[in-house]
Design a protein that fits this description.
About 30% of the residues lie in helices and about 25% in strands. By secondary structure, the chain is of the alpha+beta class. Strand 4 and strand 5 form a beta hairpin. Helix 6 packs across helix 7.
Length: about 250
């Protein structure tokens, strides 16, 4: 039995029990569609100036769409390096009360940076196909398992082969203790937010270089963790982003 004053285990218990849910059939009477909240009578909202759609950041945000078909076209190694560095790489040196540390491309609770990036490559120039770990300090790829992994990865991703067919699939993992030791159970929220920041960085950078991207949150946790050789407790997969040239 977990103790109420043990927030670390409580957060991990939630994570381990949030495996994909597969409803056997649609719930009768339930409509799955976007909904919008309106608090004032129709037409009472104060209108704001329309944004400048020509601004570069907004143009990238508007252009980003989920890509579900990737071309069989090599991805330059330099482009992959740019994507990984912009997603979660070192950006500058920060001075903190505890001394200097290396800042990253995302906001992080307590500047603790609990995430790690693993990359499954398929047709990246100068990089052998297989599984790699992004070494943030050296800005390089550490080979972990070489050889074609698209089919095995697709099985981990609930058969979402469109993601497994990307030139590179970035798997974002979290080392829980880095953040939860300071923030307790609430730290679980923070690591999820941070993963979202890193994924959005990756998607927008991909868009800026004519690439497509797709974000995947549904996967077999145990299978994907085994592929990465993680125990799923101290460190576990949290999010996936596939990138490559769109088929069209």
């Amino acid at each position: 039995m977990l103790r109420a004053d043990d927030p670390l285990s409580l957060a991990l218990l939630y994570h381990l029990n949030s495996e994909p849910w597969f409803p056997e059939a649609p719930v009768p009477g339930v409509v799955y569609e976007p909904r919008y909240k309106e608090l004032a009578p129709a037409g009472a909202a104060r209108r704001l100036p329309r944004p400048d759609v020509q601004s570069t950041p907004l143009a990238l945000i508007r252009a980003r769409r989920s890509c579900r078909a990737f071309a069989d076209r090599p991805l330059p190694a330099a482009t992959l390096g740019l994507l990984l560095g912009g997603a979660y790489g070192v950006t500058d040196a920060l001075e903190t009360p505890d001394g200097a540390l290396l800042g990253r491309a995302v906001p992080s609770a307590g500047a603790l940076y609990p995430l790690e990036l693993y990359v499954v490559t398929r047709g990246v120039e100068e990089v052998p196909d297989g599984l790699h770990h992004y070494h943030v300090l050296d800005h390089g790829l550490e080979p972990l398992r070489l050889g074609p992994l698209a089919r095995e990865l697709g099985d981990c991703l609930l058969g979402q082969d469109e993601c497994a067919a990307a030139s590179a699939v970035c798997i974002v993992t979290v080392v829980f203790e880095r953040t939860l030791r300071k923030y307790g159970a609430r730290g679980y929220r923070y690591v999820c937010m941070e993963a979202g920041h890193a994924a959005q960085n990756l998607c927008l950078l991909a868009t800026s270089h004519g690439l497509g991207s797709i974000c995947v949150g549904g996967f077999h946790d145990a299978k994907l963790n085994r592929l990465l050789e993680l125990d799923g407790v101290a460190e576990a997969a949290l999010y996936c982003v596939g990138v490559g040239y769109p088929a069209e």
